[in-house]
Design a protein that fits this description.
Length: 81
């Protein structure tokens, strides 16, 4: 079901460990499904294609500066600026 193009799509996933709406307990099985079920690989420093996952201790259902910084860094890598 997943095309080669989809497998090469850069994915940023930031998730707060204190999120009660999208519970953190769902994260590990979801990440494993992407990797094992859909063959989405981890992004690397040199290759942004794939999943880049970040976990934020104490973050609830929202965002904060450290997550936004990680997202900005990722976006800059993806658009090669």
């Amino acid at each position: 079901m997943v095309t080669g193009h989809a497998k090469r799509t850069p994915i940023f996933w930031g998730h707060g460990q204190g999120d009660v709406k999208v519970q953190y307990a769902w994260v590990e099985p979801s990440v494993e499904f992407l990797k094992n079920g859909l063959a989405i690989r981890d992004a690397t420093k040199d290759d942004v294609c794939g999943l880049e996952f970040h976990s934020y201790k104490g973050l609830e259902h929202g965002t904060r500066d450290d997550e936004l910084h990680d997202l900005q860094t990722w976006l800059l890598k993806v658009i090669h600026v």
